Amino acid sequence: MKASYALLATANLLLMMLTAVIGFQVDGEKGFSRHFLLGVMACLFTCFVHIVLFMYFVVQEKVLAQAIRQHDLDISYHPQIQAFKSRALRLSLLGILSVIVTGSLGAAIEIRLDPGVHLVSAFVAILINAIVFYFQYALVHDYGGMFHAAFGE
């Protein structure tokens, strides 16, 4: 999962940066549709990456619960996976919220919002997601250590 997640997170950040660069080239109607479509795609892809990570922990919790029930695995691991899942959810919500706010501010430019607000929001969203991806990657790494300790693999 670590390698897959690193690839998804990197691709997502590159897409967000490409969207920002294309946004600098928007001049009135010229280039707007390309920036708009990349923005929608970046928002959806960001949500996808965060949901994939959260679902990873949901599935791992089910695996762990079944191992506890059927193979007498130490029950003390269950609260640990719950904590991992909870952290993953909070981090994912932060990343998703940042792109939704950015997209909403971009849409609000038509109703007299200063484009600078959207620009600042975009760079903040990229920074927030970069930080969130770092912490999520660390979470996957830490979970791997717990999984290794629980199952001896």
Structural summary, described in words:
The two termini are 15 Å apart. The chain has helices at 2-24, 32-71, 77-107, 115-151. The longest helix is centred in the middle third of the chain and has 40 residues, at 32-71. α1 runs antiparallel to α4 (115-151), α2 packs antiparallel against α3 and α3 packs antiparallel against α4 (115-151). With 153 residues, it is mainly alpha-helical. It has one domain.
Question: In a nutshell, what does this entry contain?
Answer:
With 153 residues, this protein is mainly alpha-helical. The protein is 86% helix and 0% strand.
Helix content: over 70%
**Distance separating the two termini:** 15 Å
Structural category: mainly alpha
Shape: elongated
Q: Give the total of beta strands.
A: 0
State the domain count: 1
Number of contiguous helices? 4
Strand portion: under 5%
List keywords for this structure.
mainly alpha; 0% strand; 153 residues; single chain; 86% helix
Topology summary:
Layout: H1 2-24, H2 32-71, H3 77-107, H4 115-151
